[in-house]
């Protein structure tokens, strides 16, 4: 015979409402009590109806996640992992929407208020219109940004951003301080109208260089293996081979490092190379890069989202900016040593 909620309450020596709250509102139950209730529920093979919990709480128990990048990318995958680490124990599911155009983004904000199938919306590195934000706020759905452009001015309820201005300035100053003046900046061809975070990196890097009398050449790539190979060809075809290359992200820098080596260019003696992210394999290949911590960003965003869903203010600072960090490894060196490793 299937166990009932009353059976669990009786075995745990608590009220039925305490058992219910242990599943539907865990923050309202003492941790020791909730642990005891869940343990007994597991022994009795009892599970509370998700639909009943949703009806009682008035919530969908879903979080909509909007993102413009490929889910397989290190940053995107890390953010999803970090969000799930916080939301899953609280009974929330993630609904992932990969947005590839402004029209898709507009369609989402047109339909969500009608469907009302999410308790909050989290936006990753995506530009949002103020009118779209207002549609959610009008129906009481908080919107939280991760690496979004001007979230406070746009009307987000809360946000956490890596300081891309500071990170890009760190990268530019590092190369300039090493004596490099003939620079190349590599970026992807993603629609900048959607992906504001990488656009800000680019603009900050270029401005810092311009302020120091340097004008880097910009090369765009699609990020594929063929695209990385074409970059090496373009660099080799330049009238003057650059002394340093800055990459929008490690996903460009790491494969480029291998392609350069295969083509006979020694890094950093032939040229210096710097990435951005400190993602997968950056440490393994000795890549100098700018570190950001997407798991930490996601944890901050998820905790603020839960506070907002429960009607609480998300801490003293709902709009947080996390400093980036320059990680020095083996792919950058002073300009004076650059000529020794060139074989072309």
How would you portray this structure in words?
- Helix content is 44%, strand content 16%.
- It has 344 residues and is α/β, with parallel strands linked by helices.
- The chain has a six-stranded parallel beta sheet. Strands 7-6-8-9 form a four-stranded parallel beta sheet, with helices on both faces. Strands 10-12 form a two-stranded antiparallel sheet.
- The longest helix has 16 residues, at 196-211.
- It is elongated and about 80 Å long.
- Mind telling me which CATH architecture of the largest domain this is? 3-Layer(aba) Sandwich
Number of domains: 3
Low-confidence stretches: none
Strand order of the largest sheet: 2-1-3-4-5-11
Radius of gyration: 25 Å
Query: Which class of the largest domain in CATH terms?
Result: Alpha Beta
List how many beta strands DSSP finds. Answer: 12
Which structural category do the helix and sheet elements fall into? Answer: alpha/beta
Shape: elongated
CATH superfamily of the largest domain: Response regulator
Q: Could you please say which CATH topology of the largest domain applies here?
A: Rossmann fold
What sequence of helices (H) and strands (E) makes up the elements?
HHHHEHEHEHEHEHEHEHEHEEHEE
Strand content: 15-25%
Average pLDDT, all residues: 88
Span from first to last CA? Answer: 79 Å
Instruction: Figure out the total of helices.
Output: 13
Helical residue percent? 40-55%
For the sheet with most strands, the description reads: 6 strands, parallel
């Amino acid at each position: 015979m299937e166990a009932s909620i009353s059976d669990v309450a009786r075995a745990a020596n608590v009220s039925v409402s305490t058992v219910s709250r242990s599943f539907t509102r865990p923050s309202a139950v003492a941790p020791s009590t909730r642990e005891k209730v869940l343990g007994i529920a597991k022994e009795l093979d009892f599970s509370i109806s998700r639909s009943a919990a949703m009806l009682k709480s008035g919530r969908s128990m879903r979080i909509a996640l909007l993102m413009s990048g490929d889910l397989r990318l290190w940053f995107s995958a890390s953010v999803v992992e970090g969000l799930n680490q916080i939301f899953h124990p609280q009974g929330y599911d993630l609904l992932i929407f990969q947005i590839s155009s402004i029209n898709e983004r507009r369609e989402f904000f047109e339909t969500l208020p009608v469907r009302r199938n999410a308790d909050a919306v989290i936006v990753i590195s995506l530009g949002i219109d103020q009118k779209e934000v207002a549609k959610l706020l009008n129906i009481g759905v908080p919107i939280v940004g991760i690496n979004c452009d001007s979230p406070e001015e746009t009307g987000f309820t809360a946000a956490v951003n890596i300081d891309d201005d500071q990170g890009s300035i760190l990268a530019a100053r590092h190369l300039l301080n090493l004596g490099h003046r003939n620079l190349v900046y590599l970026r992807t061809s993603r629609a900048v109208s959607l992906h504001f975070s990488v656009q800000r990196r680019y603009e900050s890097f270029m401005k810092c260089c311009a302020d120091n009398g340097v004008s880097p050449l910009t090369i765009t790539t699609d990020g594929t293996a063929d695209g990385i190979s074409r970059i090496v060809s373009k660099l080799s075809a330049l009238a003057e081979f650059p002394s340093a290359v800055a990459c929008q992200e490690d996903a460009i820098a790491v494969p480029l490092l291998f392609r350069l080596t295969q083509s006979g260019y020694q890094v950093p003696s032939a040229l210096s190379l710097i990435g951005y992210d400190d993602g997968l394999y950056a440490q393994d290949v000795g890549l100098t890069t700018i570190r950001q911590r997407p798991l930490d960003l996601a944890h901050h965003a998820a905790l603020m989202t839960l506070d907002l869903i429960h009607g609480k203010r998300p801490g003293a600072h709902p709009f947080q900016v996390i400093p980036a960090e320059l990680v020095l490894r083996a792919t950058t060196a002073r300009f004076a040593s650059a000529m020794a490793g060139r074989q072309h």
